[in-house]
Amino acid sequence: MDHEMHYFHLKKRRSFLLFIFMCITLKTALCFNISSTSTLTFAEAYSPLFSKFNIQRSSDDKTVNLILNRFSGSGIISSDYYNYGFFSASIKMPSEYTAGIVVAFYTSNVDTFEKNHDELDIEFLGNVKGKAWRFQTNMYGKGSVSRGREERYRMWFDPTKDSHRYSILWTPKNTIFYVDNIPIREVIRHEAMKGDYPSKPMSIYATIWDASSWATNGGKQKVNYRFEPFVTEFKDLVLEGCIVDPTDQLLSTNCTDQIDQLIAKDYSTITSEGRRSMKWFRERYMYYSYCYDNIRYPVPPPECVIVPSEREMFKTSGRLRNKMKFGGSHRRHRRSRDARRRISKGDN
C-alpha cells in the first residue's frame, strides 16, 4: 500500500510539473486568457466576398468553411467598416498537401481607398506534405506597400489538427497580433511613422486562394488539385470596435468613447507574463523580421525596437544566421525539449 501511495504521489507530482512546464515554457491557453469576448454568427458579422458557391455555413451559422478547388478560392468580408477594434477567429487549416495555398485573415480598406489603403495581415502559407505550415504578419499604412513591415514565423503546433484563435488588436496607440493567447508581435505607433500607421476605417477579410507563384519555396511548389477540395474552417467570430461609414469626416469624434473602451480592455496592453510569452515565441519561431533587414532598411523604421536577443539571431538580411528546419526549431528550443524529457522521467 505504501508503494502504491508513493507511486500515486509521484505520478501526481509529475503531472503537476508537466502542467507548470506547459504554462511557463509552452504558454498554452491553460494558463491565461484574453479577456472574454462575444462571438457572432456569420450573418451578424460577415457577407460573401467572392465565390459564394465555395462558402459553406453550418446549420447554427457559427462556423463557415472556405473552400479552394480548381474552379476558385473563396472569401468573406465583414458587413461593416470599423474605426479601430479587436478582430478574432478560430481557424483550422487544410491538411495533406497544401503547397501554394494561402489562407488569410486581415483588415483592409482597399475597396474605399484604392491607392491610399491601410492593411493589417495574418497570412498562412501551406506546404508540401510532411512540412510545417508557416505564417507571416504585415502592416501597411496610406498605401505604403513598398515599405512592407513583414515578419515570418513557423508554427509550434499543427494548425490542421485543431482550431486555434488568431486575433488582431488595432488601436490609435498600438497594434498587437495574437495566436491563441500569446501576443506574438506589437507595433507601437511612433510619431515618425506618420501615415505609415493604419488610421482609416477598415473591413475584416478571410480568404483562401491559389498563390502558386510565390507561397511555397518561391513558387517552386504549386497547388496540386489532386488533393482538392482544400477546406479551412472559421468559427468563434469576434468583431469588436466602432462601426462607421468610411466616408464620414467626423470618425474620431463619433468613436471617442468606444475607442477609449477598447484601449482599456485587458488585451490592449501586454502584461509581464505576455511579454515573456512573446519573447519565448519570437526567439524560437520567428525566421524573418524587417526590423533586422539592414539591406532593405539601412536605418530601421521608427517603430522598430531592436531587441539584443533577437538581433543576434539574424543576418543583415533579416534572416536567421542558423537555418531553421521547419520540422524542428531553434537550437535554444532543444533545451526545452530536454527539460520536458527530464520531467517525464521524474528527474529534478
Summarize the structure.
By secondary structure, the protein is an alpha+beta fold.
Explain this structure.
With 348 residues, this protein is α+β, with helices and mostly antiparallel strands. The chain has a domain at 35-273: Jelly Rolls, CATH 2.60.120.200. The chain has helices at 2-26, 42-45, 251-254, 256-264, 272-285, 308-311, 331-345, and strands at 46-50, 55-57, 63-68, 74-78, 81-92, 101-108, 119-125, 134-140, 151-154, 164-170, 174-179, 182-188, 203-210, 230-244, 286-293, 317-319. The two termini are 25 Å apart.
Shape: globular
The count of helical stretches stands at: 7
* Global structural class: alpha+beta
**In percent, how helical is the residue content?**
10-25%
> Rg, please?
21 Å
Low-confidence stretches: 15-32, 326-348
Strand order of the largest sheet: 1-4-13-6-7-8-9-15-16
Mean pLDDT: 86
N-C termini distance: 25 Å
Can you tell me the CATH topology of one domain? Jelly Rolls
The CATH architecture classification of one domain is Sandwich
Number of separate strands: 16
Function: Catalyzes xyloglucan endohydrolysis (XEH) and/or endotransglycosylation (XET). Cleaves and religates xyloglucan polymers, an essential constituent of the primary cell wall, and thereby participates in cell wall construction of growing tissues.
GO cellular component, one term: apoplast
EC number: 2.4.1.207
Enzyme class: transferase
